[in-house]
Specification:
CATH class of the largest domain in chain B: Mainly Beta
Number of helices of chain B: 1
CATH architecture of the largest domain in chain B: 7 Propeller
Strand content of chain B: over 45%
Number of strands of chain B: 28
Distance between the termini of chain A: 74 Å
Number of strands of chain A: 16
Oligomer: heterodimer
Helix content of chain B: under 10%
Structural class of chain A: alpha+beta
CATH superfamily of the largest domain in chain B: YVTN repeat-like/Quinoprotein amine dehydrogenase
Order of helices and strands of chain B: HEEEEEEEEEEEEEEEEEEEEEEEEEEEE
Largest interface: A-B, 65 and 66 residues
Strand content of chain A: 15-25%
Number of domains of chain B: 2
Structural class of chain B: mainly beta
Number of helices of chain A: 27
Chain lengths: 655, 350
């Protein structure tokens, strides 16, 4: 059956499809075998219908190609007009995705543009020959075969000069220059956004834009196709597609990719498209790549219980957080290790939307005895770009301690460093103590494994090549160790008291008893005396991480300091004034000092709140607290501090 | 003549209007030394326990200075008393600036009021007196055990392990009805707080009160006759605050009597030992445009009238020290009720 028009409107496609289905179901005996019809006097299921129709379409297409194969090639000089053969069009529409079929409007040029960008059909190859109906200048009409690319070029030349121009602009040569001119910012209100969506859908360049996310997602398929047996022309085309894909990868950011995916997925729904840009919550802003992933990643990992969390998991989580605001109050922390309850998701969203603190990890406050170490560790990981090892409830306190120690310790302060491993020297019988940093490090001389190795070589009959390893008692299996297996320092994370976890050193299957840890991790947060050599962890941190510290004493300073995205504010105050609901003040000058980080300021209903995480809060659940409460806590702490220090400072990287 | 009368009435009216609109003024607490050093001062100023920068805890009494604890680096003392003034509880926190840990166990000592000789009780946190200072209680956050200890010669102790698993920083409220009968707060596995009554002699416990959701917190204030149970919000969205009265002698006849109920987001922190006719707590006076303002109020127990006694916008705590009712704001201690025998300066809204 011929069609007069080479493209069909969406409505027609649906009717056509329905008619076709009905026709075959009712009249074709080939579809339903006698045996089948005897057993089941009912219509085929949807899947079976699809499979059958799919086979029919492919078969019909092959038949027509075979039929037209021997005919002479087309001389385009004599051709007035080219239409696609109806069999081919039927097959094309059958195998096309609905979101692109929606774009097949009353516009021939748009249709061919979709074909050019391989957005219609399945496994479309521009080099493949397709059946066409040619109308010659003489008036005669013939069926022929032509490569699809030639058909498209003919149509562009004859009828679609604009599309020809677009094709050039989006070619490999000019793509980067063309693409850089686009603005992917969408209006934040729904009405304007939907208007912008309509304009984009109607735009003649839309097929060129939608090609980008499709190709980016097909890169692996292209590589697989190359490994199959294919014709040289197909191989050439696939290689070209791969080159274009690599160009896309180089030129397009993650945010832009997401925008295009969202646009091309929602061609028929402006509302769905705009939902990502008009949403005001932080969860959706992370999904649309406006904000970094870490703002919801770790919370979602705990809520969904997934160790490996992909984008689809994040989307599911974001939906949950939006629909159940109370969820954040009881879930999302690493274990039950934080002040409960946490704020609701709505409050957390307000804080996180414009917060400065980088939180690329998770920690467990109640498992770290000295809570100032948790705060310092958070500051370290904000300013450094270290890849953070995944933390679980078993190793989180250890990792926090390791982060702290590695960044505070330096040889200059070796004498003041409180974490020591001690042994009795064989000769002098004196007790000698050496500084150490908890955890394994291949190169650092003060790493725990290195220090224990050195001591063992001095005090035990061990090989000079001895190497010590650090293990968790839970995963340590003594039966798998041979008698000469070296040295193991085994931590029992289930047996911790006052920040000291039970450890033992096993060498060649024997417990070593004469090496002791003298390691109370006690550090002054701010200096406790006025002298240049006053030991304080924040002073050493400033030097080691090249951070500048500025005293902050009022709201205006806070506002202006936090405008710079990487800046944060830290301090120490009395918890009874910061959180008067949870901790009651009962006596004069009573104070429980608590370190905290402030990274945002929110003004709402004439109230001024600061987004704060104390060292007992979940890292990913900041609270909104009145500035007056915080100021009160700072003044109360100042009263009882040894040198009446003011303890609120801004931290920023030194230029 | 009539004109003069009208003018006088008008002037009187203006004065009346002005006085009714006058802001509440508060006096700064007058002390003989830096307020940052004081840990307890008796109403007449006769006994002052204070801590020096070198860590010494001293008692000034009758113009003499006594050493309660010798100098020690990095310690902090907190003192607790009741209106009876028989004894003083002293909580000694070591490594005050080196180890920040709000739930660690500190050394708890006791001394007779106005005296300096101390005796060690135990290690724990949140110590307080009960039953006319014949008993004390304290909490071990890591073992999750509340200990009630008798202070008479037999030193009898009673222990309760709480169930809480959801909040590692939870400090339970506790009160004693009589020697073997206590009440305390706990949190269940769903995070909901409850007030539990436990009878040591019968070894029976029962839930007196349960919060509606995880955002409600329970607090207790006890005096000789009553236990006041406050139910206050833990976040700024919850708009329900209430106070219940429970008679110790009735052994908590159910339901408890409600004496205050409000749809405001109050802070609470009930004080019930300062004046037998009033209790004090912190209320949120949120304006129509949702601007928050936290002030200290006193509730008349006879007619349940509420009177605002501060004009600070962000009052967050109430401290009773002998016959003085205090609050601390921006590092300064203000006298809310009681007398300041020394010179003072006025506070008005800054």
């Amino acid at each position: 059956m011929r069609t007069l028009l080479p493209f069909l409107q969406g409505q027609w496609t649906k009717l056509y499809f329905l008619a076709l289905t009905s026709f075959f179901l009712l009249f074709s005996n080939d579809l339903i075998s006698d045996e089948y019809s005897k057993e089941k006097q009912k219509t085929l299921g949807i899947l079976e219908t699809y499979v059958q129709l799919s086979k029919i379409n492919k078969k019909k297409n092959k038949e027509i190609l075979r039929k037209l194969k021997g005919r002479p090639s087309v001389n385009l000089e004599d051709v007035e007009h080219i239409n696609l053969h109806s069999t081919y069009v039927r097959s094309l529409f059958f195998f096309s995705k609905k979101r692109f079929l929606n774009l097949v409007a009353d516009d021939q040029c748009n249709f061919f543009s979709l074909l050019e960008n391989k957005l219609l059909g399945r496994n479309l190859k521009l080099s493949n020959s397709i059946p066409v109906v040619i109308t010659n200048k003489s008036g005669s009409v013939e069926n022929r075969i032509m490569p699809l690319t030639e058909v498209i070029q003919f149509i562009y030349k004859k009828r679609c000069p604009k599309q020809k121009e677009n094709s050039t602009l989006f070619s490999k040569k000019y793509f980067e220059k063309t693409f850089n001119k686009f603005n992917f910012e969408m209006p934040k209100n729904e009405r304007s956004c939907m208007k912008a969506h309509i304009n984009l859908i109607k735009s003649p360049i839309l097929p060129y834009l939608c090609k980008i996310p499709v190709f980016l997602n097909m890169e692996n398929k292209f590589l697989r196709d190359l490994n199959r047996e294919i014709m040289p022309s197909e191989e050439e085309e696939i290689l070209d597609d791969l080159r274009i894909t690599k160009l896309f990868k180089k030129s397009i950011s993650v945010k832009e990719k997401f925008f295009l995916e969202n646009l091309c997925k929602n061609t028929n729904s402006g509302k769905n498209f705009c939902s990502f840009y008009t949403a005001k919550d932080v969860w959706t802003k992370v999904l649309n790549k406006e904000l970094p992933k870490f703002k919801i990643f770790h919370k979602c990992k705990q809520i969904l219980g997934n160790q490996v969390l992909k984008d689809s998991g994040l989307a599911k989580c974001a939906k949950l957080l939006n629909s159940k605001p109370s969820l954040c109050s009881s879930k999302g922390a690493l274990g039950k290790t934080v002040l409960f309850p946490s704020p609701k998701c709505t409050d957390i969203s307000k804080s996180l939307k414009s917060s400065n603190l980088v939180t690329n990890h998770h920690d467990c406050p109640s498992k770290v005895f000295n809570q100032s170490i948790t705060n310092i560790s958070r500051i370290i990981l904000h300013f450094s770009n270290h890849n953070v090892k995944t933390r679980s409830i078993n190793n989180c306190s250890f990792e926090t301690m390791k982060t702290f120690s590695k960044n505070i310790y330096s040889e200059d302060i070796d004498d003041l460093w409180p974490m020591k491993i001690c042994y009795q020297s064989k000769l002098s019988k004196d007790n000698t103590c050496l500084s150490y940093i908890p955890g394994y490090d291949k190169n650092l001389s003060v790493a725990e494994n290195k220090v224990v190795e050195n001591i063992l070589k001095k005090t035990q009959p061990v090989l000079s090549s001895l190497k010590c390893h650090i293990s968790n008692k839970k995963s340590f299996n003594p039966s798998r160790i041979s008698s000469n297996d070296g040295c193991h320092i085994i931590y029992d994370f289930d047996n911790c008291k006052d920040n000291k976890c039970l450890k033992k050193i096993v060498v060649n299957n024997k417990n070593i008893k004469n090496i002791n840890y003298d390691d109370a991790p006690n550090f002054y947060y701010f200096p406790e005396k006025i002298s240049k050599d006053a030991f304080s962890s924040i002073n050493f941190l400033k030097n080691n991480l090249n951070i500048k510290q500025t005293p902050i004493s009022n709201l205006n300073q806070i506002r202006s300091f936090l405008k710079e995205k990487n800046n944060i504010i830290h301090g120490v105050g009395c918890i009874q004034n910061i959180y008067p609901r949870q901790f009651k003040l009962r006596s004069m000058n009573q104070c429980k000092p608590t370190a905290f980080i402030i990274d945002n300021i929110i003004e709402e209903n004439k109230n001024i709140y600061l987004s704060i995480r104390t060292s007992i809060d979940d890292l990913h659940s900041p609270r909104l607290i009145h500035w007056s409460f915080i100021y009160n806590s700072l003044k109360t702490y100042q009263n009882v501090h040894s040198i009446n220090s003011w303890t609120l400072y801004g931290l920023q990287k030194n230029n | 003549m009539a004109f003069k009368k009208i003018i006088s009435i008008f002037i009187l009216f203006l004065i009346f209007l002005r006085s009714s609109q006058a802001k509440i003024k508060h006096s700064i607490l007058a002390t003989n030394q830096s307020p940052g050093k004081i840990r307890f001062m008796s109403d007449d100023g006769k006994f002052v326990y204070y801590q020096k920068k070198n860590g010494e805890l001293l008692l000034s009494s009758d113009f003499k200075i006594f050493t309660v604890f010798k100098k020690e680096k990095d310690v902090h003392y907190t003192l607790y008393t009741t209106p009876l003034k028989k004894r003083v509880l002293i909580e000694k926190e070591k490594s005050f600036q080196k180890i920040f840990n709000i739930i660690k166990s500190n050394n708890i000592y006791i001394t007779k009021f106005g005296k300096h000789e101390t005796s060690f009780i135990s290690k724990g946190n949140s110590p307080e007196f009960h039953l006319n200072e014949d008993w004390i209680s304290f909490f071990d956050s890591y073992k999750k055990v509340i200990t009630f200890q008798n202070l008479s010669s037999n030193k009898f102790t009673l222990k309760i392990k709480i169930s809480n698993k959801v909040n590692p920083f939870f400090l339970p409220e506790k009160a004693m009805l009589k020697d073997s009968s206590v009440v305390y707060t706990d949190i269940n596995n769903k995070g909901i707080q409850g007030l539990i009554h436990y009878n040591f002699s019968k070894k029976k416990s029962r839930i007196i009160f349960k919060a509606n959701n995880i955002f409600q917190r329970l607090e207790i204030c006890e005096n000789n006759k009553f236990v006041y149970l406050g139910v206050f919000p833990l976040n700024k969205e919850e708009k329900e605050s209430s106070i219940y009265l429970l008679k110790k002698s009735d052994h908590f006849k159910f339901p408890p009597k409600i004496i205050y109920k409000s749809s405001s987001n109050d802070i609470g922190n009930i004080e019930c030992n300062f004046n037998k006719d009033f209790i004090y707590f912190i209320k949120n006076f949120e304006s129509e445009d949702k601007k928050e303002s936290f002030e200290i109020v006193k509730l008349n127990l006879k007619n349940t009238n509420l009177i605002k006694i501060t004009d600070m916008k962000f009052a967050t705590n109430i401290i009773t020290m002998d016959k003085k009712l205090l609050t601390i704001k921006d590092g300064d201690y203000y006298l809310l009720e009681g007398s300041n025998s020394l010179t003072s300066k006025e506070f008005s809204d800054k």
